[in-house]
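Dissemination and training. As part of the outreach component of the grant, students in the summer workshop were shown how a complex can be specified as a set of sequence lines and then modelled as a single object. The example used during the hands-on session is reproduced here so that future cohorts can follow it. Participants entered these lines:
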Amino acid sequence: MLLRRKQYMPLTLLILRRLLWVLPVALGVVTITFFMARVFTGDPTELYTPPEATDALRAQIRAQLGLADSLPRQYIRYLHDLSQLNLGTSFTTGQSVGSDLWLRLPATLELGFVGLTFGVVFGIPLGVIAAVNRERWPDFLIRGLTLGGMALPQFWIGLVLIMFFFVTLRWLPGPVGRLPVGVPLPPLVTGFLLIDTLVAGDFPKWLLAVRQLILPGLTLGLSTMAPVARVTRSSMVEAMQSDYIRTAVAMGHSKRVVWFRYSLRNALLPVVTLIGGVAGHILGGAVLLEAIFAWPGLGQYALQAIERSDFAALQGFVIYASLLYVIVFLIVDLIYMLIDPRMRS
Amino acid sequence: MSKLTDARDVLVLALRRRATPGPGGVVGLKAPLSQSIPSEKPRRRARAPLSWSMRIGAAILLVYVTVALVSFVWTPYDPFQPGVGDGYAPPSMEFLLGTDRLGADMVSRLMAGARYDLGICLVAVSISLTVGTVLGTIAGYYGGYVDIVILRIVEAFQAFPGLLFAMLMVKAVGPGVPNIIMVLSFVGIPDYLRLARAEIQSRRDWQYAEAARMVGNRPWRVAFRHLLPNSIGPILAFTSINAAFVALVTASLGFLGLGLGPNTPEWGNMIARGQDGVMTGEWWVSFFPGLAILGMTGSFYLLGDGLSDLTDPRRRR
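and obtained this result:
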């Protein structure tokens, strides 16, 4: 049903409709966050009040934080602000949550992009190698390695990488963020350091930024690579057992043509879905990764918001995460159309 | 070889069917038939042999269960007692895996950690498996409004980033092992619900379900006694994969210091406490708990692989 409808829908309409999905999803997610945070974690006023404060001062601070009203009234006010794209003010930074998040987004995206690229570039070939050597030693080796990549916690992989490449070998810089301590940021253009340093013409600084990026990127890349390789392998194995592959082999096509033009192309759909899933969860996953590498991105912001009951910041982060999720799956659908001619109108 | 056993199976089945013209027809085949035909070998032979990944996974898991149980009665040193050795003593004959910053024995702590990580994981997964499957079966079998309402609620929760949701809930309900179990099982329910719903829905209109309804079974009986047992294979395979995920989330929560006391020998917590040591060269405090997690989640993945090979005919070879 859904597939058929998609076939006849113009592309722009499809994109628009999918972007509209953000609204109910974000609303639901924000509502859950709003009430869960406020009902369960109690009043965070104490965190932002000096202990010797008088009751009057306490009440004043509570009102300043916007916590004095009843819950429904707070909720309606928040939705009203939200409809004007105002995400509120962070208790912790005192800045508007919208600009806080916007400033931190490039750091997370830059790291996520590097990690994903690594995962895809190495994961798919590994999966193909395993599939065409099924039940032989390259297959067992790759399956073992990828199993390890999936079974290990990401934060542990990060720590072990730091241990080897920073503490023992001293090849790469330690986990201090996007640039070494004391190095000023380049003038803000896009927020992506790899671009901004080049725009500023500061090549040594670009190199510094790259070196800071390697370890966290590798951590994210390894834990992305593992599931990508496994799904590629199993999906390709399935494709290679199918009738059309038997036919292609019987018709005398070379191995390379059978593997890459027929099997891999047919096997890619589940892989794209998986990559989409991974990409959609980059914000959620960033929480731990950024904590280890002191990466000043959205994940750290969210962790801090949870620890300090910073409601507006938390809600803003959740909105960003669901927004990213919907956009990523829109892109995934567009890629489907590229790979699978049946989905084109 | 498998061809032969298949052929024998078909033969035995045909003989049995002739032997008992029982009143139950197709539905009532089971009990009288298996007694009516003497078979010289147990029927288990006809099933596919267990795969290696399943055997290895089960063996590793068994080791973990044993270690967790043994840790209640015996550990080399008291896992909760700091200062049994020097702080950051490297691995030696006395302390096989060294000691942590406060001088507690790593082996003992790792053993005690097994009962936290494994226990939390197993209990949480069992709860979400039960609740999710029951709700999913109801939603899938009855359809209509029940289905729509349940599914909408589930979707709202699923749009949340999983770990963040768990963090928020742990923060909300407060620390403690029962609370963590509650949070993790709650986070897991939607996946089971959706899977069970899809499985039941796809089987609802099959002939055997129709037959079961026709002979007068109540709807819930058809759903839970006829459809659910037939859908259980994929659900179990997913359970195993999900257990690995839950174990990783448990460790992540511990790493962030959420949910359990700072001195709890939970593996993620131990990794976090060894983080300073990593920077100064005392690698063993963080390193070994990671290996412990690897073994446990790895065994779950292996089991899951084996189970899905068994239940998915396309993957069987």
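The CA atoms of residues 5 and 50 of chain B lie 16 Å apart. Students were then asked to discuss how this feature might be tested experimentally.
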